[in-house]
Amino acid sequence: MRASLIQLSVDSTDSADERRRRAASLVRDRAGDDLVVLPELWAAGAWSYDRWDHDAEGLDGPTAEAMSTAARQAGVWLHAGSIVERDGDGTLYNTALLFDRSGDLRGRYRKIHRYGFDTGEATLMGGGDDIVTVPTDLGVIGLATCYDLRFPELFRGLLDAGAELIAVPAAWPAARLTHWQLLTRTRALEEQVFLLACCATGTHGDMRQAGHSMVIDPWGTVLGQARTTEETVTVDLALCEVTRIRSELPVLRDRVLAIEAPVRR
């Protein structure tokens, strides 16, 4: 399969409509690929908290509509990054969307771990509670988003749900680039999956983005990596490598699931 990460440049001077038009055009350019992945909250800006309420939308909103059309026109599976979703009771969620080659919405994941501690996403958005995997003609795709990378329990849950490839859209700060590079490789290595980590570039909400989107194989080897400008990384993957590597180095069968915490005296 051929997979592409579109590392969009997200700048505070762009409108959501301008970003949607550019993203749709870049997706259409990937006709012939199998899977395309976009960054986290690229339409509203992951750090532009002041825009979230205005740019929030439903699952049938302008971003979903534009991405559905682009996926159909390109004939690709499209992980459209994530949107600021507003549900029926007005709660906002950081929601990732996966469309199939016909443009049908096949997967929705509300980000479980919200960044910000006592500010930002942690206070302005609700959190999801579902582990999401999607069976496709390419293999089973698991969904996670940005800050989720710091929580290995989620990725072990995706593994147990059958994930062979995990797509991670992000808007990771440039100041913590080394964390991004370490955590993405670690999650791929420990779960023995392909990991497609697509980060934004540019600056929004006064936060400079890390870029360095990466495709990582089940050995933890980086197969392709972007720099810090808007660009597309394309890599050919053989998902049969997941089975081969898990057989050659069968560490997952040695998991011990019931380790009791020591008693403090």
UniProtKB/TrEMBL annotation:
Keywords: Acyltransferase, Transferase. It comes from the Bacteria. Residues 1-239 form the CN hydrolase domain. The keyword Transferase applies. PROSITE patterns: CN_HYDROLASE (PS50263), UPF0012 (PS01227). Gene3D superfamilies: Carbon-nitrogen hydrolase. InterPro entries: C-N_Hydrolase, C-N_Hydrolase_sf, UPF0012_CS. GO terms for molecular function: acyltransferase activity. It holds the Pfam family CN_hydrolase. Belongs to the carbon-nitrogen hydrolase superfamily. NIT1/NIT2 family. PANTHER family: DEAMINATED GLUTATHIONE AMIDASE, NITRILASE-RELATED. This is Acyltransferase. It comes from Streptomyces griseoruber.
